[in-house]
């Protein structure tokens, strides 16, 4: 069924900037997150009001994942990636939305997908970081 549309009850005080990006955030020949670091540089420079990132964050189809060539367990690499994103967007003040993918190697491959679990999310980031399931509906303002 279609989702009912509810127009905002008040006008936005100013235009909103939204940055949307979709993974994977690694090159195909390396498990280094250079594209992710480049994206975080853009977030720091442009300071969007909202940053929505879709996985996969650690792609199950990556050749080093498929060949079990990573030096750390998959959950540790994913946690490091998500922590890098949270810390890398902190100075911009952007609201951050993280959406999992069925191809995230250490996240349940069921549909609908539960949101990521970040129990060690710093207190100062809890108000600006939103972990959502896939699929989800976002109401911006």
Automatic annotation (TrEMBL):
Domain (DNA polymerase alpha/delta/epsilon subunit B) ranges: 18-141
Main location: nucleus
Molecular functions per Gene Ontology: DNA binding
Protein's cellular compartments: Nucleus
InterPro entries on file: DNA_pol_a/d/e_bsu, DNA_pol_alpha_bsu
Keywords linked to the UniProt accession: DNA replication, Nucleus
GO CC annotations, alphabetized: alpha DNA polymerase:primase complex
Gene Ontology biological process terms in this record: DNA replication initiation
Similarity remark: Belongs to the DNA polymerase alpha subunit B family.
Protein name: DNA polymerase alpha subunit B
Annotated source species: Molothrus ater
Gene it is expressed from: Pola2_1
